[in-house]
């Protein structure tokens, strides 16, 4: 027997078999992270029966899986970097039930143990997030020059009071600026903290008037997480089925003759903050679906329940 | 081709075969493993369900302070030593006394404890019998849910329901003698004493008796136990006194002279000797109309924007404020009211900027919300100067639908009674919303301090009684030691107009 020819044959055969298994593994991996075309078509068809219109592109993307981050909240908020910065700037710190308050002659900051945050100049009552909920503010386009000015004022405010710098956990945040809205006189800038590119639910809104920040409120996380855990997270198709169930329920209770057509425009993932009784915080993935008519709803991706 | 090149080629082929074989084995293994279920998740749906419930509670945690349900009196009776040592004004320097009750409460009222309701006759007989033996006696100003007492004492327990036992007086007593051994005093000093297990008998104002037991057995020196030396070491504070119970004293002419028999119970404490000082003072309280700044702050505390509401003032000076889903009113006498419309009212989810996963709220949420709102209203009206007054929970009612939390004022730890009632602030909740608020604010001044010989104490409370034409006065009841027995009031009630 010609061993040499046998070896060549063996090499060719092994290459073929290895290539086959490699292809199967890659394909299997792809199928485990992407929906099958038939599943997509079938799901879209089911959604349409409830007048829920979902473009294929939403379901053709890779299935998102996010971990849960967890950490211990700083027990003494006065020791956080932002509190130390305010004290150094002349603010007077006082402990109140639920958090700390830093005041000076112009205004005051509040930081809650539950990461609630607000800033206001004395005498001002309206919160920027409340103002944004009215219809008096419109979104500015990216090329709008006033938008750039407002962002500059917001960035200076964030930098001056050290709202970027946080605790000593293993994972840190980055600040990402969102939309800018205008009422014609005042501006509202929205920004979020992000961890690994995913925003924390509950944006911070800054009210800008006369070139300065007059009020701010939202969720500001003053502690960094130090652990990341794998999460039993539901996928987008299941979120959309939950949304379909919500629309069906609304239709049944609404007494209307037909469904209101809902065209999905955006899907955004974020982290909601939860605390346990011992003060450990958790960032749990949320999925927010938004529609062309302005409606949006958020679902907790682990509990599979409506969040807001 | 030279032999050397041939042999190198064959070697390379051999290496290729081996590598491809190894790769084949690895790829097969990976392929088969890809069909197996991966390991469990660290954060599961069950974890999330537990976390959802705890997350809302966390926001109230800072407000659940023990001072809101501090015992009015704690007494330690050691018959063999012939000493009864008691403490009033259980804040400030005596805060450590009420803190020592926490380990007992944890074992008796917590998950490890059990409760049996006694018949009135059996309960009364047992209570009287235990009063004559070694015990720790704890008295609250009013009946409170046991679960709320535990939650406020421990600050990390939760009160799920306002059902079950309401208690006002507690007797913690020894049960079984375990051994004579070492126990730890609060200061960390070890002592040699008798170690007992313990149980408790409690009762409310309506004559319901409960026996609380625990399977807990102390083992280490630092474990909570009933031992004589342990609780008597609290004489290290400067404001204790020796006392007896009214039932155990011979009939005193004081009770006859001042016709106090109807107001004396078997557990009324009678001070026999004082150590340190009690705070005699006169409080002057009067109605006051809030300033514009205070009004705006009060509305803001109720999450009503004073700049956005519709308001008007009627001919009697009462100001009304109308907001979406609710309205509020402030009278010239400082009474703040809030009423929610049918489906309106401040929702708990907006109060804490947390959107509850399910619209189910338990007593812990309502009491927590009441504590937050009461704290905000107090801050809005009194700011930094409350003249030494603090709030405490005077009552909690639940009628199956609405949970109402009442607050009163204390002065130096003593509850203040205004026109015979301690309930000066109330919050009513149902279905996750605030439905009604009634809040009476008063202007307080410390008129003067009277040098009162406080050798004997019958009962201690501060009562504010208002004359329609004059400001109110506060007074405490004292009983003189010596002869003849008499009562001394710290302040006097004025009759008629001045």
Major interchain interface with per-chain residue totals:
A-B, 47 and 49 residues
Please report the number of helical segments of chain A. 7
Task: Give the structural class of chain B.
Answer: alpha+beta
As for the number of domains of chain A, it is 3
**β content of chain B, as a range?**
25-35%
How much of the polypeptide of chain A forms β-strand, as a percent range?
25-35%
Order of helices and strands of chain A: HHEHEHEEEEHEHEEEEEEHEEEE
Distance between the termini of chain B: 132 Å
Q: What general outline of chain B do the C-alpha atoms trace? A: flat
Mean pLDDT of chain B: 75
Number of strands of chain A: 17
Oligomer description = heterodimer
Quick check: average pLDDT of chain A?
A: 87
Shape verdict of chain A = globular
For the termini of chain A, the CA-CA separation is: 75 Å
- Give the count of helical stretches of chain B: 11
Which sheet architecture does the biggest sheet of chain A show? Answer: 10 strands, antiparallel
Unreliable stretches of chain B: 450-498
What would you report as the Rg of chain B, rounded to the nearest angstrom? 31 Å
Whole-number radius of gyration of chain A? 25 Å
Biggest pleated sheet of chain B: 13 strands, mixed
Topology, pairings included?
The complex is a heterodimer of chains A (308) and B (498).
Chain A: H1 3-33, H2 37-49, E1 52-53, H3 56-60, E2 68-72, H4 81-88, E3 92-96, E4 99-103, E5 107-112, E6 116-121, H5 128-133, E7 138-139, H6 145-160, E8 174-182, E9 187-195, E10 198-199, E11 204-209, E12 212-219, E13 227-229, H7 236-254, E14 262-275, E15 280-291, E16 296-300, E17 305-306
Parallel strand pairs in A: 1-14
Antiparallel strand pairs in A: 2-13, 2-15, 3-4, 4-5, 5-6, 6-12, 7-8, 8-9, 9-10, 9-11, 11-12, 14-15, 15-16, 16-17
Chain B: H1 3-33, H2 45-60, E1 73-78, E2 83-87, H3 95-99, H4 102-109, E3 113-118, H5 120-131, E4 135-145, H6 146-154, E5 166-184, E6 190-203, E7 209-214, H7 228-232, E8 240-245, H8 253-257, E9 269-274, E10 283-287, H9 292-301, E11 310-313, E12 319-323, E13 326-330, E14 335-340, H10 348-351, H11 363-382, E15 389-398, E16 403-411, E17 414-418, E18 425-430, E19 433-440, E20 442-446, E21 462-467, E22 470-475, E23 477-479, E24 487-489
Parallel strand pairs in B: 17-21
Antiparallel strand pairs in B: 1-2, 1-4, 2-8, 3-7, 4-5, 5-6, 6-7, 8-9, 10-20, 10-22, 11-12, 12-13, 13-14, 14-19, 15-16, 16-17, 16-18, 18-19, 21-22, 23-24
Helix pairs in contact in B: 2-11, 4-6, 9-11
